[in-house]
Amino acid sequence: MKEYIPVLKRTRLFSGVGEEDIGAMLSCLGARLLTYRKGEYVLRQGEHLSDIVVLAEGCLHIQKDDYWGNRSILGQIGAGEIFGEAYVAPESGTLLNDVVAVENSAVFFFDVKRVISTCSSACRFHTMVAQNLFYAISEKNRGLVQKLDYISRRTTREKLIAYLSEEARKQNRAGFTIPFNRQQLADYLSVDRSAMSNELCRMRDEGLLEFEKNRFRLL
Amino acid sequence: MKEYIPVLKRTRLFSGVGEEDIGAMLSCLGARLLTYRKGEYVLRQGEHLSDIVVLAEGCLHIQKDDYWGNRSILGQIGAGEIFGEAYVAPESGTLLNDVVAVENSAVFFFDVKRVISTCSSACRFHTMVAQNLFYAISEKNRGLVQKLDYISRRTTREKLIAYLSEEARKQNRAGFTIPFNRQQLADYLSVDRSAMSNELCRMRDEGLLEFEKNRFRLL
DNA sequence: TCCTTTCCGTTGTAAAAACAACCGACTTGT
DNA sequence: ACAAGTCGGTTGTTTTTACAACGGAAAGGA
Q: What is the CATH number of domain B153-218?
């Protein structure tokens, strides 16, 4: 476990906490470290979860098989990232997805009850970890609300406008770059790539915007 | 402020806390109570927010005007409900929506920093309120992930299947009722009502399911 | 340099959704 | 009992998307 403390130190959850303090806190947080081989399931859809999951090493996929066996990959978890925050409330429903190791991986599990109840012993930074977790969920929440705002538009054009306007506003200038290539943007907005590419060019021809690669300018 | 303590007692945030303890906690949580007349803005898109908002009385709409002035209503806040959890992280982006009073309303604002940092004085239930908030966000998060899972499907049929399967699984029986009428379900899934109604009947004719009003049975 | 891969625009076709409009059943209030 | 409103199904038309397939440009590696 100790060997991963430098990794933990760089995570959102332990931001602002020193390595010695992390080491001292591990038992107090009920930390468990498990390793998985490529292809193994870390969590399964339908299970209950009462731990916050932090990936120390490797790569996980969040995926779902529908009842015809079609698999869709909803997300990826890289080293240092958190998972499970949405499922740890006492009355929470079960996991909505499978989590599978796509590389050999090392995974920390922290008992959420012990994370958010400050312990009686003298963990100086326990409160900070709890707050980090709180803020992490809060920001994830905002990201979900935003994505939902884009995706709930009816047409591809509306989705693009919603996304690009927000990105322009956020970067606060006429020209801005987006962190996606075409395929990734299409996946993010849940539309077909070629249809989206089509729509983008049509909007350009109508004089609504300009673009080159992932650099855009709204007119 | 005191007159709303019975209302607060029934909220998710103060669940498990007695009225006297709530009263004692109000100042310690940095509570402010503001009233709004019907039509007034409570919060505006683009603002920063560092408070958790609890509606004590009235009704608020979460809405957004796009840059052509088209207004869309994304949600409603009823008495006792919480808002703002997605925006209170220190580095969080600004509010993505307007919040408007559609009735005369009374609104509590709680400084989020004071909610999640247990105070030095002897607020016995402060920790419980912080945990309640944490779990509330966590569950809201799960709801968003789930909705996103439905809406990101390409066709109306796929959205319906995703939603109905999950609802069947959740209620754990072949027959189940949904908490929406047709228009509300269409709004929730972000599709056209008549197109959805069409698709539902087509699925029924194909023998995939049966329904009557808001009672369904998957076959 | 040559080969392979990735990225992105383009086209055509088939499928699906949006939209508008209408109807009958049922509820609700007066 | 009547009028008004809500709800859900249906139809037909137009718009939009998905899908498959192709080609050229650019990037990267052997």
A: 1.10.10.10
| Cβ neighbours for A135, distance < 8 A, ≥ 6 positions apart | B88, B89, B90, B91, B92
| pLDDT tens column, A123-147 | 778 889 999 999 999 999 999 999 9
CATH topology of domain A2-139: Jelly Rolls (2.60.120)
Q: A86 and B154 in contact by Cβ < 8 A?
A: no
DSSP per-residue string spanning A85-150: TTS-STT----SSEEEESS-EEEEEEEHHHHHS--SS--TTHHHHHHHHHHHHHHHHHHHHHHHHH
Q: Measured CA to C1', what is the nucleotide nearest B211?
A: D8
Q: Does A7 touch chain B (CB under 8 A)?
A: no
Window B105-164, strand D contacts by Cβ < 7 Å: 154
Asked if B76 and B3 touch (Cβ cutoff 8 Å), the reply is: no
Gap between the Cα atoms of B132 and A103, Å rounded: 36
Please write the tens of the pLDDT for every residue from B96-105.
999 988 888 9
Ranges of CATH 1.10.10.10 domains, chain A: 153-218
Q: Which residues pair with B41 in a beta bridge?
A: B100
> Which H or E run includes A72?
strand A71-77
Q: Using a cut of 0.85, tell me whether the model's pTM lies above it.
A: yes
Structure tokens at A127: 């409160």
Is A190 an interface residue toward B (CB < 8 Å)? Answer: yes
B144 near A CB under 8 A: yes
